[in-house]
Amino acid sequence: MSIRDNYLIIRNEIPDDVTIVAAAKTRTVEEVKEIIQAGATDIGENYLQEAEQMCEALGEITKQVRWHMIGNLQKNKINKALPLFNIIQTVDSLKHAEDINLRAERINKIISVLIEVNIGSEITKSGVAPDFEVIENLAQGISNLKFLKLEGLMTMGPISGDPEEVRPYFRKIKQIFVKIGDLNINNIEMKTLSMGMSNSYKVAIQEGSNMIRLGTILFGRR
Fold first, then answer.
1. CB 82: neighbour CB atoms within 10 A?
2. Backbone phi and psi for residue 187, each to the nearest 5 degrees, phi listed first
3. pTM of the full predicted structure?
4. Between residues 30 and 123, which one has the greater pLDDT?
5. Are 211 and 19 in contact (CB under 8 A)?
6. Cα(202)–Cα(205) distance, rounded to whole angstroms?
7. From 2.60.120.10, 3.40.50.720, 3.20.20.10, 3.20.20.140, which CATH number describes the 3-219 domain?
């Protein structure tokens, strides 16, 4: 099946309020163009350089979609990233948030962000600990940053061949997500729970995700 077919099948299978972020890491311009033309509204990139090249090659089509930074954003790349991206999903410390805020202020741009949670506490992955107090403290800190708009949480979930093994982790982060939202912290709108990838998105949606990041299942294997 074509990329277009893959996208439309999943789009029709899942609830309307679930956003699909097409993870475009290492994908060609033609592939990304095809999925945008199929109706994709959100594109995720892991690396700034790839995102720059992709946006330049796509030209005007770039403006039809929201661009998500779904990989680690290093401090020395924030300046170049801010004009490109609409949302940064990988904020994992107050220092990181402050660095983004400082540079966003310079270009007078309010940027949407998500807190990345390392739900499986895996040493090889970035993200804050899956602890309510840790996440609450970070959320409170971000709420004081004028040019950041915290909109929710993001997690990868432990890699597993069986999506059911990831379900308890997704359930836990949904609980934290709801509790943070219930605090009604000023300047925060907890509306996005970004979790679930190609092998786990169905379980993630069942456990409350309203944003899934899909690569292989849309584009095929690299």
1. 19
2. 70, 20
3. 0.95
4. 30
5. yes
6. 5
7. 3.20.20.10
